[in-house]
Amino acid sequence: MNDLDDKLNIKVLMYHRVLKKEPLDDAHWHYVTASAFRKHLKMIDWMGYTPVTFYDYKLYKEGKLTLPAKPIIITFDDGYLDTYENAIPILLEMDMRAVIFVMGNRNLQRAYWDERNEGDMCPLMSDEQVRHVSEMGFEVGAHSMNHTTFLKLSSVEISHQLEKSKDQIESILNDEIYTFAYPYGGVDDRVRDVVSESEFSFACGVYTGSPKFGKTVFDIRRLAVNQKTALWKFALLLLLPYQYVEWIYHRVKSRQDPQMLEKDLYVNMEDGRNRKLKKSKNGKPKETDMIIHNISNRNSR
Question: 202 — phi, psi (to 5°)?
Fold first, then answer.
């Protein structure tokens, strides 16, 4: 599988944490509140989009599934506990699915890369919760073993991260996974080449990929949604070819500062703490069900 379908230009949204309410202090991690997330999903529905997964797209390419007229992919990075507690119930209520990228190191109980101190804890989903997410029809993907940027790893180390994370997650799901997300969105030509030789079918970046959906399947561009994304801006993300705007912006900025992309993706990487992410970032329907039931358009219900 080299290129995705030229007829489709699916928008891919990237979320991180979903909190019940605004934090008291100036949060350094990316989040949306549950009420804001609900508004996002209502707007997606109102505009006639139907959330699908990368696994859906895989079946579509194999001729086993018909995609809706306006597909969109909703992704969550890191596998936070609040994704399970706050985002998943709203998605189920709205009859929508998403892709959840979790860590391969299943001994990790907290997202240490997001914590500034011991009182600033970011708990992650347990094995049982990840399995439950899969059973509910959400696609589960891998996000490396320990959330280490691939830009600083050797090719051998990257291969180990890919193989180990895939094996670990598949062992708890007792099912195959197909999609990977680069920690911090960190990917370049060398990293992409290594991932393309792995057992994954898709890999998601953030700013580095083509604005055309999946021009290469191993650097799928995503639109970051966080606390700074006002509802009017979220509407523009859906209405306009916003990925092209971001692509042009980063092309211009990278020419002015060749190190801009790396600076924009992550800060303070030395000790795994106090990392302020700027914009970084299977359970799936059973194949037999997917083949029998094509995904219907939400605006035709």
Answer: -140, 155
Q: Give me the helix-helix angle, 189-196 and 155-173, nearest 10°.
A: 50
Are the C-beta atoms of residues 135 and 283 closer than 8 Å to each other?
A: yes
Rounded CA-CA distance 135/137 in Å is 5
Could you give the angle at the alpha carbon of 202 between the alpha carbons of 210 and 267, nearest 5°?
65
Tokens of 106: 């299943």
Q: What is the pTM of this model?
A: 0.84
Does the structure show a pLDDT above 50 at 268? no
Query: Per the structure block, which two tokens stand in for 59?
Result: 């079946």
At 110 the three-state DSSP class reads: strand
Give the confidence band of 67 by pLDDT, cuts at 50, 70, 90: very high
d(CA 164, CA 162): 6
Q: Give φ, ψ of 28 to 5 degrees.
A: -95, -15
In the chain, the domains with their CATH numbers are: 11-294 (3.20.20.370)
What is the spatial distance between Cα 163 and Cα 197, in angstroms, rounded to a whole number?
11
* Mean pLDDT for all residues in the chain: 84
Between CA 160 and CA 166 the distance in angstroms is 10
Beta carbons of 112 and 151 less than 8 angstroms apart: no
pLDDT over 60 (residue 5):
no
The overall longest dimension of the chain from CA atoms, in Å, is 52
What stretches of the chain adopt beta strand conformation (E)? 11-15, 17-19, 31-33, 50-52, 71-76, 99-102, 139-142, 179-181, 202-204, 223-224
Which two three-digit tokens encode residue 198? 């792995």
**One-letter amino acid identity for 57?**
Y
Measured between alpha carbons, how far is 271 from 40 in angstroms, rounded to an integer? 35
Q: What is the rounded CA–CA span in Å between residue 291 and residue 287? A: 6
